[in-house]
């Protein structure tokens, strides 16, 4: 199940004004969800561009598909059109993000490529917030006689969470990872923490690291645990993210340092930040409302008097704790339970 951050959404009137009538066919939702799954293959190697997926369908048959290439090129639409060839004529293109309208030295605008393809219809899951394209991609398609529509799609928004958070809040999408006992401890009172969860859960953590642009821990965790913060799954070791340390100390070799949580906005090229702790660092991000997703790995053990997962987050009233987080995913990983919660904004 894809992550579903609750981002501010353009109003329904805005969609109608800019993109024409809204599509309502159940098949549109199905194909957009499939395009969103394709987009996941581009993350995070598409940086600095968003990870976009595109599927071209003719008569309920896929004739072309694509996702953003490494480094942002080629775009998903160009790949899908290249596969479809002449079969694109009269077909429908499903793309997670409105096709770009601005020219680039690295390649033509996707709305121009689509306009020349003979497509009958283009359906996008999200309107592009980039002012160079916002609405202009659809306008160019409609001017070419192509029906261009927005079908608001949670799966498409989820697949673009890092890009949309950057556009809306000027910072990366932040996922906080916690691995705890049943009673919320991350270590014994003496500090022993390896390993609370089992091998399956730890492998899953490495797969999540591979989807991030950068991974962050606090100075205390760095000094006490000496974490490698890399990806150690066979075949994708090269996906290890940039390491970031929250500290006021001297930066270690190959590690970027920030002094305060708000400085993540200055992490260049980072759309997805994976936060692994420790407890005070995690609490500082929660206190400043900088966490968009919590991924909780819970082991079937009870530690008792141990180190708690979180420090003070500035919560004074219990009522303020409710309504902030929505469960979006749950699965069993060996003997451990994995749950993902999205911040409700």
What does this structure look like?
Helix 4 (110-115) links the parallel strand 3 (92-97) and strand 4. The protein is an alpha/beta fold and 345 residues long. The two termini are 20 Å apart. The chain folds into two domains: 26-166, 3-Layer(aba) Sandwich (Cytidine Deaminase, domain 2); 171-343, Dihydrofolate Reductase, subunit A (3-Layer(aba) Sandwich). It contains ten helices and 15 strands. It has helices spanning 12-19, 26-39, 76-84, 110-115, 136-143, 154-159, 161-169, 199-209, 219-225, 279-287; strands at residues 53-58, 61-67, 92-97, 121-126, 147-150, 173-180, 185-188, 214-218, 242-246, 256-258, 272-277, 293-298, 306-308, 325-333, 336-343. Helices cover 25% and strands 25% of the residues. The radius of gyration is 22 Å and the shape is elongated. Strands 10-9-8-11-6-12-15-14 form an eight-stranded mixed beta sheet. The chain has a five-stranded mixed beta sheet with strand order 2-1-3-4-5, sandwiched between helices. A two-stranded antiparallel sheet has the order 7-13.
